[in-house]
Design goal:
The complex is a heterodimer of chains A (480) and B (137). Chain A is of the alpha+beta class and 480 residues long. Helices cover 31% and strands 25% of the residues of chain A. In chain A, strands 7, 8, 9, 11, 15, 16, 18 and 19 form an eight-stranded mixed sheet that branches. Chain A is globular. Chain B is α+β, with helices and mostly antiparallel strands and 137 residues long. In chain B, the strands form two sheets. In chain B, strands 1, 2, 6, 7 and 8 form a five-stranded antiparallel sheet that branches. A three-stranded antiparallel sheet of chain B has the order 3-5-4, covered by helices on one side. In chain B, β7 (122-123) and β8 form a beta hairpin. In chain B, α1 (22-38) runs parallel beside α2 (60-78). Chain B is globular. The N and C termini of chain B lie far apart (28 Å). The chains are: A alpha+beta (480), B alpha+beta (137). The A-B interface holds A 45, 71-75, 78, 98-99, 134-137, 189, 192-193, 202-204, 242, 245-246, 248-249, 252-253, 256-257, 268-270, 272, 407-413, 480 and B 6, 8-13, 57-58, 62, 66, 69, 73-74, 76-77, 79, 106-110, 112-113, 115-117, 119, 134, 136-137.
Chain lengths: 480, 137
Amino acid sequence: MMEVRDHLRRVHDFLWEIPVTARPGMLVPAQVYASDRILEDIHGDHSLEQLTNVAMLPGICKAAIVMPDVHEGYGFPIGGVAATRWPSGAISPGGIGYDINCGVRLLATGLRREALEGRGEEIAKTMYAHIPSGMGKGGAIQLSDKELDEVLTRGVAWAVDRGYAEPDDRDFIESGGCLSADPSFVSVLARRRGFDQLGTIGSGNHFVEVSYVDEVFDRSIADVFGLVTGQVTILIHTGSRGLGHQVATDFLKRMVASMSRYDIHLPDRELACAPFDSEEGQEYFKAMAAAANFAWCNRQVITWEARNMMRSIFGNDLNVRLVYDVAHNIAKLEDHMLDGERVRLIVHRKGSTRSFGPGQPDIPEAYRAYGQPVIIPGSMGTASYVMAGTSEAMERTFGSTCHGAGRRLSRHAAQRAVNVAVLEKELVDMDIHVRAGSRRGVSEEAPVAYKDIEEVIRVVHHAGLARKVARLRPIAVIKG
Amino acid sequence: MRSLEFIDHTADIRMKVRADHVAELFDAALSGMNHLLMNDEKMPEGKLIEQRIDLRSGDLTSLLIEFLNEVLSLSYACRAIFYRFYPEVVGSQSIRGRIIGVGVRQFHEDIKAVTYHEAQVTRGADGKLETIVVFDI
């Protein structure tokens, strides 16, 4: 019997397809954006099989798609994109992930790299003291039930009202930092896990990084985004913390139980789903939106902490401007062209980033003519990229692109492969200063554990899914 | 006789658990999860915390995963490790009982959820129950 991988056929340089006939139950083909090298990296995992499972989702349109940072996930592979037809196509929590609205935010400062010469260690230490990180740790903000309801309903607007934001911040967040939510569908356990976690980054691959613009590839777009070579920037990568994890768990359990009632049968429980317009579908979407709002507030409070931290070192007049904030684990209602017709779709992005091209109304007016900023963090010690969304992405991938480098080694394999002391010295020799909650965390997140970000970006750029604008290099990083 | 084995997984943690009977399987899986949360065989000392578990599910595999998730959620919500499970009812579709634990200041691992990924309780040729459990961390 043929393996799923044996059905892969190259469509063009960086696009492969598994036909709809590859497995019974597939409703659309599976499409893989990857180079030969990236395909080799996923040889031993189940990401392609998972992608063909996604192709079985009720109401799925065009193709189940995966980006070049692909690796095995739960239900969906990481890097997965699937759009189902509104109103009764499926919505699947596995297509968003447990960390609802995990995403990345880019801030641009008024500093040049020279101002940080010899101060990387000081910045890492000060950041670590200012911004809570680590396993299950709470922050300084403890929300009452009423306050938590406001965060879940109003998103970033809550943070604006309480002085955690600067006047223009909300305009430069995907969806304005708020989706229409109903916090009554967020469980008591989710609330108990989240009430003290605003302003915390958590652990794993979440981080805050002070970096600088190392190279500009597209001067005209960089100018519009307000980025110049040598400029000091800050990246924030985190999500909805325990609250979001619990929302996902609660609804996955509910949909596993209810699927058969809708006569839905899928090969993987983690793909459990419900029709979008069903009771389960609607309640999940509104709870997911609430968790997404929490995540945007979380990144906003961390922005406030980062601004305070930088101003405590470089003076209160320091400009720290929000360039953009993107989500990479989320489902959105979006209108896209499909077979010549404009249709409403439920677009799932699981470890993939929206990449809306020029002219799209959802993009801030200042950027609209050029495409939205797309922020792609690399692994610890490697480059990150700022890209711009494209019209080609709108046509090919429902306006979607990759989200990062994608793991290639297990955590245990990374721990075995990495000598932490040697890695730490190598980073310091490159003038990169890391503060982490544990040495184990450093080894697990070492560059060798991830795909080559340069290869991922090369594929995305040449496949037309986003355009390179600038590369960032780290100076100081904190991880949980 | 029960056994636990941790196996490589690209992004997260995969555990294989085996046991002679259902209650032992649940207890063994709980021990495995607590080992990840605490990375220490020795339970901390402190005031005891008790919570009730009362779950129903469509099959034994889902029930196990949902049991672990319930305990995980309570662990984070109560900031505690629940190291003992006292079952009152353990069936293939329902489980009821008490969990006892102690408070902790910090966890060793941040487990987002216990996933259904690769989970399937089966009985091996040697008569033992076994399943894989994958933790999203």
